[in-house]
């Protein structure tokens, strides 16, 4: 399967934004939310 890894360099450059949670943790939290 193909992995998706979006390029967030523009968000970093223009907004000074950095992700605060890693992908695995984010997916886990998302799944937990939808299971409720």
Kindly provide the radius of gyration, computed on alpha-carbon positions and rounded to a whole number of angstroms.
13 Å
The best one-word shape is flat
Distance between the termini: 28 Å
Low-confidence stretches: none
Structure class? mainly alpha
- Give the beta-strand count: 0
- Let me know the average pLDDT: 89
Count of separate DSSP helical elements: 2
Largest sheet: none
Share in β-strands: under 5%
Percent helix, as a range, is 55-70%
Order of helices and strands: HH
Task: Please characterize this protein's 3D structure.
This protein has 36 residues and is mostly helical. The termini are far apart. The chain has two helices and no strands. It is flat and about 35 Å long.
Compose a concise summary of this entry:
By secondary structure, this protein is mainly alpha-helical. It is built from 2 helices and no strands. 0% of the residues are buried.
């Amino acid at each position: 399967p193909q992995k998706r890894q979006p390029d967030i360099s523009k968000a970093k450059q223009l907004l000074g934004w950095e992700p605060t949670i890693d992908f695995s943790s984010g997916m886990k939290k998302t799944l937990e939310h939808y299971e409720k």
